[in-house]
């Protein structure tokens, strides 16, 4: 957070700089320069090790406050006060900086939860934001909107986890994206490709299944028929066939008469 003042007229050792913020406990000091030196003993415990000024730039009139590990608890109005330590104390400069912490959602990830027939359920996950966002699904091929899905949010200490679930009836291959709203620019997932085989492949596969079913149903019947014939022949007397009367003309088809072995 910037706080700059032209190179001080007084020597640096006589400068006092205070960065303060008002919290529930009252006004606290985030960082301080005492007699030209950065002094941590005046720092509030919540800022110790996280807030500092660059001692090299103090002589240049640069009193910028650096803050790390920023969270939403750091939001507020910061006051920078620059004074000369010679008596009487003179206020040289003061300014305020409004800090607003904007948490960004991560790039969403898309996964398939389940598939039933032509319906596919897709799940979009993202986290890191500080509010309940809007989420929408698109077909990235033609840009058509697929809807916002069913939105679930989980509030954590410093961020929100968001999940969107959408079910689509897919009749052809699609590239689907999920977009999550962000204050500083929306974030969109990589295209998720849904590959649906052509109908003729289903037809060929169906015919193959039918052929297998027919063969599977017919083969046992043929085996049973052969076993029945064999059993019948094993149990009944063999038939012996003889030619009819000798008076039949040569070359003509002779009628056959059946005789059991005991009649021969």
UniProtKB/TrEMBL annotation:
Keywords: Cell membrane, Disulfide bond, Glycoprotein, Immunoglobulin domain, Membrane, Receptor, Signal, Transmembrane, Transmembrane helix. The keyword Chloroplast does not apply. It is a single-pass type I membrane protein. Residues 1-82, 88-188 form the Ig-like domain. One of its GO terms (cellular component) is plasma membrane. The chain crosses the membrane at residues 213-234. Pfam families: C2-set_3 (PF22705), V-set (PF07686). InterPro entries: BTN3A2-like_Ig-C, Ig-like_dom, Ig-like_dom_sf, Ig-like_fold, Ig_sub, Ig_V-set, T-cell_Activation_Regulation. It comes from the Eukaryota. It is found in: Cell membrane. The keyword Iron does not apply. This is ICOS ligand isoform X2.
């Amino acid at each position: 957070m910037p706080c700059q003042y032209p190179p001080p007229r007084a020597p640096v050792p006589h400068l006092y700089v205070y960065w303060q913020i008002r919290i529930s406990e009252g006004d606290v000091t985030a960082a301080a320069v005492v007699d030209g030196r950065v002094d941590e003993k005046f720092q509030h415990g919540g800022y110790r090790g996280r807030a500092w000024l660059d001692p090299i730039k103090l002589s240049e009139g640069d009193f910028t406050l650096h803050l790390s590990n920023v969270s939403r608890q750091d939001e507020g109005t910061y006051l920078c006060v620059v004074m000369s330590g010679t008596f009487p104390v003179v206020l040289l400069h003061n300014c305020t900086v409004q800090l607003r912490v904007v948490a960004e959602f991560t790039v969403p990830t898309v996964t398939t939860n389940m598939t039933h027939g032509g319906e596919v359920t897709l799940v979009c996950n993202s986290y890191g934001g500080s509010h309940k966002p809007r989420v929408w699904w698109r077909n990235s091929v033609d840009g058509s909107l697929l809807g916002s899905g069913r939105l679930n949010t989980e509030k954590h200490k410093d961020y929100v986890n968001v999940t969107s679930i959408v079910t689509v009836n897919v009749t052809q291959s699609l590239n689907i994206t999920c977009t999550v709203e962000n204050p500083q620019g929306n974030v969109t997932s990589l295209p998720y490709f849904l590959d649906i085989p052509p109908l003729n492949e289903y037809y060929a596969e169906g015919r193959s299944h039918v052929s297998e079913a027919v063969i599977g149903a017919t083969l046992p019947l043929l085996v049973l028929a052969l076993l029945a014939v064999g059993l019948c022949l094993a149990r009944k007397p063999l038939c012996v066939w003889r030619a009819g009367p000798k008076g039949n003309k040569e070359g003509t088809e002779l009628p056959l008469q059946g005789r059991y072995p005991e009649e021969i």
